[in-house]
Design brief:
two-stranded antiparallel sheet, about 5% helix, mainly beta, three-stranded antiparallel β-sheet, 5 strands
Protein backbone atom coordinates (compact mmCIF):
# COMPACT_ATOMS: atom_id res chain seq x y z
CA UNK A 1 0.00 0.00 0.00
CA UNK A 2 1.68 3.19 -1.17
CA UNK A 3 -1.02 5.61 -0.08
CA UNK A 4 -4.03 5.30 2.19
CA UNK A 5 -7.39 5.07 0.45
CA UNK A 6 -9.26 7.51 2.69
CA UNK A 7 -12.63 6.58 1.22
CA UNK A 8 -12.13 3.01 2.44
CA UNK A 9 -10.84 4.32 5.76
CA UNK A 10 -13.94 6.44 6.30
CA UNK A 11 -16.15 3.40 5.63
CA UNK A 12 -14.24 1.39 8.24
CA UNK A 13 -12.81 -1.10 5.77
CA UNK A 14 -9.66 -3.02 6.59
CA UNK A 15 -6.61 -2.06 4.55
CA UNK A 16 -3.45 -4.11 4.14
CA UNK A 17 0.08 -2.79 4.40
CA UNK A 18 3.54 -4.32 4.30
CA UNK A 19 3.59 -4.71 8.08
CA UNK A 20 -0.03 -5.72 8.74
CA UNK A 21 -3.68 -4.77 8.52
CA UNK A 22 -5.04 -1.34 9.36
CA UNK A 23 -8.63 -0.88 10.50
CA UNK A 24 -10.03 2.63 10.79
CA UNK A 25 -12.92 3.76 12.96
CA UNK A 26 -14.56 7.15 12.51
CA UNK A 27 -16.00 9.05 15.46
CA UNK A 28 -18.10 12.21 15.26
CA UNK A 29 -16.87 14.53 18.02
CA UNK A 30 -19.00 17.63 17.47
CA UNK A 31 -19.08 20.89 15.60
CA UNK A 32 -16.46 23.58 15.23
CA UNK A 33 -17.91 27.05 14.94
CA UNK A 34 -15.33 29.02 13.00
CA UNK A 35 -15.94 32.71 13.70
CA UNK A 36 -12.65 34.18 12.49
CA UNK A 37 -12.36 32.50 9.11
CA UNK A 38 -8.94 31.10 10.10
CA UNK A 39 -8.11 27.59 11.26
CA UNK A 40 -4.79 26.83 12.97
CA UNK A 41 -4.01 23.28 14.11
CA UNK A 42 -1.23 20.77 14.79
CA UNK A 43 -0.74 17.35 16.38
CA UNK A 44 1.87 17.77 19.09
CA UNK A 45 1.42 14.21 20.40
CA UNK A 46 2.28 12.57 17.09
CA UNK A 47 4.66 15.22 15.75
CA UNK A 48 6.04 17.24 18.69
CA UNK A 49 8.51 19.24 16.59
CA UNK A 50 6.10 20.15 13.82
CA UNK A 51 4.70 23.60 13.18
CA UNK A 52 0.99 24.30 13.06
CA UNK A 53 -0.72 24.63 9.71
CA UNK A 54 -2.97 27.58 8.92
CA UNK A 55 -5.94 27.66 6.57
CA UNK A 56 -8.45 30.34 5.66
CA UNK A 57 -12.02 29.03 5.50
CA UNK A 58 -15.48 30.56 5.23
CA UNK A 59 -17.05 31.52 8.57
CA UNK A 60 -19.40 28.62 9.30
CA UNK A 61 -20.07 25.51 11.41
CA UNK A 62 -17.98 22.47 10.50
CA UNK A 63 -18.49 18.84 11.53
CA UNK A 64 -15.44 17.39 13.27
CA UNK A 65 -14.52 13.72 12.96
CA UNK A 66 -11.74 11.76 14.64
CA UNK A 67 -10.34 8.84 12.65
CA UNK A 68 -8.51 6.19 14.69
CA UNK A 69 -6.23 3.63 13.05
CA UNK A 70 -5.78 0.20 14.63
CA UNK A 71 -2.70 -1.58 13.30
CA UNK A 72 -2.53 -5.36 13.56
CA UNK A 73 1.09 -6.35 12.96
CA UNK A 74 1.88 -9.42 10.91
CA UNK A 75 5.65 -9.44 10.81
CA UNK A 76 7.55 -12.56 9.95
CA UNK A 77 11.25 -13.05 10.25
CA UNK A 78 13.36 -15.29 8.05
CA UNK A 79 16.91 -16.34 8.83
Amino acid sequence: MDTINFYKALRGEKLSSLIGDITFTTHYVGELILTSGRLVACDLLAFPDSEAFQKSLPIAKYSVFLIVALLTLSLSFEY
